[in-house]
Amino acid sequence: MNLYEHTIIARQDTSPSEIKQLTEKYSKIVEKNDGEIITTENWGLLHLSHLIKKNRKGSYIHFKIKAKGNVIDELEKNEAIDKKLLRYLTVRVKRFDLETNYFLKKEDAEKK
């Protein structure tokens, strides 16, 4: 089994309930193909570095996945035809960094 970090960017006008549906939809695809979702992170609405399909912002969802390569192929095949998504990216990693939260607000980090 390989370890993957997978990020999708949904359109800026996607509602929170649709974001939840997207997360569940792609989690089910991974689990149906004998993969395992280690963690799911909703990074929220962030500015894009350049316009993508006339969108200045996007809702980011990040998955840490333990699976075989064919699971990622199936996942990306479904994402390519989804009109709610702007982009997706999968990176194979050697190990997961489960301690660091890169999108923690500065005020929250100072409290810890």
- CATH class categorisation: Alpha Beta
The CATH homologous superfamily: Ribosomal protein S6/Translation elongation factor EF1B
Contiguous low-pLDDT stretches (5 residues minimum) are none
Global geometry: globular
- By CATH, the architecture is named 2-Layer Sandwich
Mean pLDDT: 87
Order of helices and strands: EHEEHEH
Q: Biggest β-sheet: count, sense, barrel?
A: 4 strands, antiparallel
Our count of helices gives 3
End-to-end C-alpha gap: 35 Å
CATH topology: Alpha-Beta Plaits
C-alpha-based Rg, rounded:
14 Å
- Arrangement of strands in the largest sheet: 2-3-1-4
Query: How many DSSP E strands?
Result: 4
The computed structural class is: alpha+beta
% residues in beta strands: 35-45%
Which bin fits the share of residues in helices? Answer: 25-40%
Number of domains: 1
Determine the oligomeric state from the structure: single chain
